[in-house]
Amino acid sequence: MLYCSCGFSCGVKAALDRHLAKFAGTESEAEHGHSLPLPALPPRGVKSAPNLARSLDIDEDGAETDELQPTKPAKQPVPTPPRTCRESSGRQAMVRLLLVRHAQSANKCRLPGQVAEADPGLTDYGLQQANALGHRLAKDFRSTKVSRVIFVSSPMRRCLLTMQPAVSLLQLTPENVLCHGGSYEFGCAGKAFVGSTAEEISTEYPEFKPVGFAPDNAWDYQGNTEKETEQECRARGVRLVEWLFATAAASGEFPHTIVLATHQTINDLICSILVDGSAERWRYGEIRYRLQTAGITEVLADPGKSRLGVQNDGTHLFALKNK
Predict the structure, then answer these.
(1) Where on the tree of life does the source sit, at the highest rank (predicted)?
(2) 222 and 293 co-located in one domain
(3) Is residue 176 in a domain?
(4) CA distance 129 to 321
(5) Between these two residues, 24 and 56, which has the higher pLDDT value?
(6) Residue 251 lies in a domain
């Protein structure tokens, strides 16, 4: 490799000769000989010259030349901050919703002629289902940041009891364990029966924080009939879905998982709203999104394009069914 004191280098003597010939007879040659002076630093306060990079060219006669060319400094990528539920392309962010049906109701084992309870608990088998579900959810979420998981229950006892084992195993804080007063089963509230109060829930189930209750602290029934109608239930379902999105958005970084312990009918209604895009097709008793007791259905909920994931999963119940 041939060098000039100016920093020029090349691998062909003819190219170096042409380089030196440019300065033949000049003051630079008289002062420095057959070379160029090293470039001086710019005066203080003067902006530096652009960075220089070498480029290899081929002359018309086939000789290689090595010239210093100015280059623009490489652009540094601008770091993109992580999006949150509050800012997801201008829309509400996706929510991973796990719909869990309550375990077996105590009304399933009532004696002949015995009147069904308005708000029953669970059978012994139902308690076993709840325990199996709790261990399943604890296993599923053991590697997940617990602060990004919210458990929500219907105010009905069979749902609260179904969620208790999972809440205990995961050691969730009250801010992440909620009881929503508007997620009860269809027709189970009205002017004739207003349900349990928020204070009663807090006393009997202290791990659950009551939210979404009516101004009088009863279940969130907003109609005027003795028993809830289908149209009133559709409106309640829409309010519940809006609350789910708002709750996820208020919780910070997404994606967020919400586990909702609910009922067959409300599961069907929520899936109709999210997957079908409307509550209008929903009819009581015409189940299209079936969910077994203590089963799980996953909905990847995004306003306008929600889709189903795992449906009616009951693999955690196989050991109980085979007894």
Answers:
(1) Eukaryota
(2) yes
(3) yes
(4) 10
(5) 24
(6) yes
Do 35 and 148 fall within a single domain? no
**Structural domain that includes position 270:** 95-321
Between 264-271 and 230-249, two packed helices, what is the crossing angle to 10 degrees? 70
Alpha helices, DSSP H, located in 145-299: 157-170, 198-204, 230-249, 264-271
Give the rounded distance of the alpha carbon of 37 from its chain centre.
Answer: 62
| Total residue count of the chain as it appears in this document | 323
Asked whether residue 89 is domain-assigned, the answer is: no
DSSP helix/strand/coil, 256? strand
Same domain, 132 and 255: yes
Distance CA 119, CA 156 (A): 6
Hey, what's the torsion of the CAs at 167, 168, 173, 179, to 10 degrees? Answer: 40
Residue 79: is its pLDDT beyond 50? no
Same domain for 308 and 251? yes
The DSSP output letter for 279 is S
Those residues whose C-beta lies under 8 Å from the C-beta of residue 19, and which sit 6 or more positions away, are 4, 8, 10
Q: Is the dihedral of CA 246, 251, 255, 260 positive or negative?
A: negative
- What CA–CA distance (Å, rounded) separates 201 from 209? 8
Mean pLDDT, the chain, integer: 80
Closest CA to 105 of 318, 319, 292, 304: 292
**Within a domain: 287:** yes
Q: What is the DSSP letter of 2?
A: E
Q: How far apart are CA 189 and CA 181, in angstroms?
A: 11
Per the CB < 8 A criterion, the answer to whether 137 and 166 are in contact is yes
Number of domains in the chain: 2
